[in-house]
Amino acid sequence: MLDISSLWIGDPIMSTKSGVKGIFEGIGKSGKVRLKTDGKITLVPAKYLVRYEEKAIKTVVQNKTKKYREVDNFGDSIDLHIERLNPTIANSNPIHIIDYQIRKCHAFIRATIQSRKLSVVIIHGKGTGQLKTEVLNMIQDYPEIVGTKEINNGGAQELQLLYY
Q1: What does pLDDT average to over the chain?
Q2: Looking at the structure, do residues 113 and 35 belong to the same domain, yes or no?
Q3: Amino acid 89: pLDDT
Q4: Which domain holds residue 110?
Q5: Per-residue pLDDT, 151
């Protein structure tokens, strides 16, 4: 049985009884978990729930009037603004959002290194500076990144890479 006290609003969960996947939307008055799928809330007993790992969604996801496609084949830049990255979790807990942004940034850097690109851009925005700080700390973990340059008035980092 899933420990529901460890869940954040927006965490991906699945009912083992019905196979329905959705996101955690809190606990209802009856004590059942609120599972949101396609804009509808279903109450599910905790004993039937498991977490599932978010994979690259290769289908189009409807979000109000906009559609987006979440994929892991990156170009020469990544925009970490959550409205661009994954608008379906834009109203989630800020800790969940920054964790998601960081995971996607790591995936982008790994894909960049695998593709042996020499220069890429990470758009983190200005905001509070928390995501920028996380990005700057993260890039220190990759020896292939030999230089950074702040661009877009401090809202992005251009990375220079070198391979040995």
Answers
A1: 83
A2: no
A3: 87
A4: 60-161
A5: 92
**Number of domains composing the chain:** 2
Q: Which of 152, 79, 142 is nearest to 160 (CA)?
A: 142
CA torsion 56→61→63→67, rounded to 10°? 100
130-139 helix and 94-115 helix, angle to the nearest 10 degrees: 30
Q: What are the Cα distances from residue 44, in Å, to 4, 38, 67?
A: 12, 16, 28
* Backbone Cα Rg of the chain: 18
Which two structure tokens, joined as six digits, stand for 79? Answer: 């925009």
CA distance 88 to 63: 6
Cα(91)–Cα(12) distance, integer angstroms = 14
Q: How far is CA 69 from CA 28, 58, 85, 105, 132, in A?
A: 31, 7, 9, 17, 25
